[in-house]
Amino acid sequence: MTKKIAIYPGSFDPITNGHIDLIKRASKLFDEVIVGITQNSKKSAFLAIEDRINIASDTLKDIPNIKVLSFNTLLVDFAKAQNAQVIIRGLRAVSDFEYEFQLSGMNKHLNPNIETLFMTPAEQYANISSSLVREILSLGGDVSHFVPSSVESLLKTHL
């Protein structure tokens, strides 16, 4: 029987409660969920890739079927190397759909054997994004409702 493996890719700069919500829910659907952390070449990272990997690993350590890895290749190549059949993408709002739909179509063209599963966050996490968390924090706001306390502490050390 084939192990069902999914990849949830992103920059996770930082990982938020919304990301964690999707990861926990995906962990119930798949035998293994790989949180694939990458440096997005279009964005300058706030946290170093090592910090993002370490904080995600620590935050998710209590979920047994989660693995946190980094990658610097095409997503479909990373998925194939990990024997993953599914790419998970989060949709917070309708505005996310057009871009995610384009990515899904391109990934399907590059590797027709990999499916994309769109998941929506729980309502209380629908407006959280890593960039908003960084902006709120940089302006002195409270981000404790949006990220775990360990993430908040790490972010404060990088200000």
Give an account of the 3D structure.
It is a single chain. With 159 residues, the chain is of the alpha/beta class. The protein contains six helices and five strands; from the N terminus they run βαβαβαβαβαα. It has a five-stranded parallel beta sheet, with helices on both faces. α4 (94-110) links the parallel β4 (86-90) and β5. The longest helix is centred in the middle third of the chain and has 17 residues, at 94-110. The relative contact order is 0.21. The model has no long low-confidence stretch (mean pLDDT 93).
Overall strand count? 5
Share of helix, binned: 40-55%
User: What Rg is obtained from the alpha carbons, in whole angstroms?
Assistant: 15 Å
C-alpha termini separation: 48 Å
Compact description:
The protein has 159 residues and is of the alpha/beta class. The protein is built from 6 helices and 5 strands.
Q: Which features would summarize this protein structure in a list?
A:
five-stranded parallel β-sheet; 159 residues; 40% helix
Explain the layout of strands and helices:
Layout: E1 5-10, H1 17-27, E2 32-37, H2 49-59, E3 66-70, H3 75-81, E4 86-90, H4 94-110, E5 115-119, H5 130-138, H6 149-157
Parallel strand pairs: 1-2, 1-4, 2-3, 4-5
